[in-house]
Design brief:
Distance between the termini: 27 Å
Helix content: 40-55%
Structural class: alpha+beta
Number of strands: 4
Strand content: 25-35%
Largest sheet: 4 strands, antiparallel
Shape: globular
Radius of gyration: 14 Å
Order of helices and strands: HEEEEH
Number of helices: 2
Strand order of the largest sheet: 1-2-3-4
CATH superfamily: Transcriptional Coactivator Pc4, Chain A
Length: about 90
C-alpha cells in the first residue's frame, strides 16, 4: 500500500488515461493474437501497459525519492481505469 501526493495522483491518473487511450487506438492496427507494450515516462513516474488492446496489465514506478513500484493484472487494471474515471468526474463536478 502506498499513499500518493496530489501531484503524484494527478500524474498517475493522466498517465493511466493516456496509455489506456493509446491501447484502445491500437485495436484496429493489430492482429487479434498480438500483444503490445506501451511505456510512458516523466520526471516523476514511469508507467507501462502490456497485453491486448482490450485487456492489459499496468506497472508503475515513482521516480522521485520514494522509488515505489507496483502493478495490477489485466482484470484489475480494467476496474482501476473505471474507478479513476469516476473519481475524475466527481472532482470535475465538485
Amino acid at each position: 500500500s502506498v499513499e500518493l501526493t496530489a501531484r503524484e495522483f494527478n500524474l498517475f491518473c493522466q498517465s493511466v488515461q493516456q496509455l489506456s487511450e493509446t491501447m484502445k487506438s491500437l485495436v484496429t492496427q493489430l492482429m487479434e493474437e498480438e500483444l503490445v507494450s506501451c511505456e510512458l515516462e516523466t520526471e516523476y513516474l514511469w508507467m507501462e501497459v502490456e497485453g491486448f488492446p482490450d485487456a492489459f496489465r499496468l506497472s508503475f514506478i515513482l521516480n522521485q525519492g520514494r522509488c515505489v513500484e507496483g502493478g495490477w493484472s489485466a482484470s484489475i487494471t480494467s476496474e482501476l481505469i473505471k474507478g479513476l474515471a469516476r473519481i475524475q468526474r466527481f472532482r470535475v463536478e465538485n
